Amino acid sequence: MASKDFYKGRRKFLTRSAGLLTASLLAPYGWATGSKDKIQRSIPSSGELLPVIGMGTSRTFDVDPVSAQSQALAAVLQRFFDLGGAVIDTSPMYGNAERVLGELLKQTGNKQALFSATKVWTDGHQNGLDQMERSRQLVGVGKFDLIQVHNLRDWQIHLRTLKEWKAQGRVRYIGITTSHGRFHEELATIMEKEPLDFVQFSYNINYLEAEKRLLPLARERRIATLINRPFQRGELFSAVKGKPLPEWASEIDCQSWGQFFLKFIAGEPAVTCIIPATSKIHHMQDNMAAGYGRLPDERLRKMMRDYFVSL
With helix as H, strand as E and coil as C, how does 192-245 read? Predict the structure, then answer.
């Protein structure tokens, strides 16, 4: 079993070796080589660093594995890695997403840079075992970096299994997720009692529910956070269509609304990694640009929120 130092060293090397390529790809966004630092956050339970911008696969990767759509996603995936990405989050719930991701990883050959995250989404102990093994085969990894219980489904059974797997070295980190506000209270109770490495939930500039309990609890319990629905499934872009960015957005190296929304989230210290999903190269490039440069402090985050609400 590889040590934590191995994984830290591997990602440190990959980050350095990708530096020049990253700078050239970000040049269209006005980024000079070496002028912007990559933003990383540590996993509290290990100290391992992760880029603050990752990638989700819900909807976007649920395509026919042999279709033109799938082949177009290969370029999106390659750009993600070229720009220093690591965390990719998927699930059996997302249709063909795991299969498509696995096939594209074979084509792009980027498994060494990958921090693989999936979920278990079924009922019963044996069904959970079978599903997780199938996910491993579909994605094509020796073991997942992270497996999460999806939307709290049969969480007592699956979390027991995941704790055993972690002790046996069959998975590196374990966690639990929700994308529904109605589950926040139950999720908070689990966070208070269970030894989780990660928790995943929704949080964005127009949905601040997680600030009440989940984010403070993650800080207190030293649990890493994955943030889903950062654009509220595209609704945030509809709200700002045709509206200009504020001039002071340049203070946080922000040149688009997508970066504005992502940097608002990343400015919260308890956020470990944000996982926007996209099937377009230019959107991927824009998302990844938010993972470099300066972040807003609390004063600027309040200004960002107030400006958005005023539109």
Answer: HHCCCCEEEEECECCECHHHCCHHHHHHHHCCEEEEECCCCCCHHHHHHCCCCC
What is the structure's pLDDT at 45?
A: 98
**CATH number, domain containing residue 272:** 3.20.20.100
Residue 67 covered by a domain: yes
Tell me the angle at which helices 68-82 and 97-108 cross, rounded to the nearest 10 degrees.
Answer: 60
The verdict on residue 66 lying in a domain is: yes
Gap between the Cα atoms of 26 and 22, Å rounded: 6
Q: What is residue 251's three-state secondary structure?
A: helix
Per-residue model confidence (pLDDT) at position 29: 45
**Token digits for 217?**
């609890």
Distance CA 98, CA 84 (A): 21
C-alpha distances in angstroms, 35 versus 38, 175, 283?
10, 35, 22
pLDDT tens track for 54-97: 999 999 999 999 999 999 999 999 999 999 999 999 999 999 99
CB 61 within 8 A of CB 73: yes
53 neighbors 277 (Cβ within 8 angstroms): no
CA 39, CA 146: separation in Å to the nearest integer? Answer: 21
What are the tokens at 210? 């997680």
Contact criterion met (CB below 8 Å) for 55 and 87: yes
| In-domain check, residue 44 | no
First to last CA, the chain: 52
Residue 30 placed within a domain: no
Looking at the structure of the chain, the number of domains it has is 1
Residue 200 · residue 178 · CB < 8 Å: yes
What domain range is 148 assigned to? 50-310
**DSSP annotation string for 70-111:** HHHHHHHHHHHHHTT--EEE--GGGTTHHHHHHHHHHHHT-G
Which pTM does this prediction carry?
0.90
H or E element, residue 41: strand 40-42
The stretches in the chain having pLDDT less than 70 are: 1-35
